[in-house]
Design brief:
Blueprint lengths: L8 H13 L6 H8 L3 H18 L8 H132 L7
Helix pairs in contact: 1-2, 1-3, 2-3
Length: 203
């Protein structure tokens, strides 16, 4: 709620003159309706304005002292009544302000509860994100380890393939040598058999 600026005597005077020009009663409440402010403050300013107006337009006849006393007494009672009304207004405003403060505190408590709930959810989400990040790092480490192990297995297989190829070559060479040895042995056996067979006598 925007607070009105402090009421000045010049503003109160202008309001009184405006009311007077509009042929309206110059009352404290009417001036407050234009300038704002409290009843006591504006009331003093209206009183000063009236005194200044009275000084400019002095009465042609001097009122009797009894009349002046009656007017002063009436003004006192009017002022007392106005002050009572002002006090009631202050109490009403204080009560309304108290109710507004109580309502604002209740709303603030609700907002605080909601903020607390959101903070707890955020904390849980952060913990979950940390856990997921940890698992992702572990899975990444496992994947890197598996890839490294697979690379080692591939190297071992390549080495085994190379050894197998070498063994096949050696086996083929050995097989060829065995064939040559077998052929040589067969040839020698045939030659020995031919020498042992005797020639037939002529008839």
């Amino acid at each position: 709620m925007e607070r009105k600026s402090k009421v000045t005597q010049s503003a109160a005077n202008a309001a009184c003159e405006q009311l007077q020009a509009d042929s309206k009663n110059v009352t404290v409440n009417a001036v407050i309706g234009i300038t704002g402010g409290s009843f006591s403050t504006v009331g003093d300013m209206v009183k000063i304005w009236r005194e200044e107006q009275a000084a400019h337009t002095a009465p042609l006849l001097q009122l009797p002292e009894s009349v002046n006393q009656a007017v002063s007494k009436a003004a006192f009672y009017i002022w007392a009544a106005a002050s009572g009304l002002a006090g009631e207004s202050v109490e009403r405003i204080q009560k309304e302000a108290g109710d507004a403060i109580t309502k604002a505190k209740a709303e603030l408590s609700e907002y605080a509860g909601e903020v607390s709930r959101l903070e707890q959810e955020l904390e849980q989400a952060n913990l979950k994100a940390i856990e997921q990040t940890k698992k992702a790092n572990e899975m990444q480490e496992t994947a890197v380890k598996t890839i490294s192990e697979n690379a080692g297995y591939v190297a071992q297989l390549q080495e085994k393939d190379s050894q197998l190829y070498s063994l096949k070559a050696d086996f083929a060479k050995l097989q060829g040598e065995l064939v040559e040895i077998a052929k040589a042995a067969t040839k020698q056996k045939t030659a020995a058999t031919t020498k042992k067979t005797p020639k037939k006598a002529a008839g």
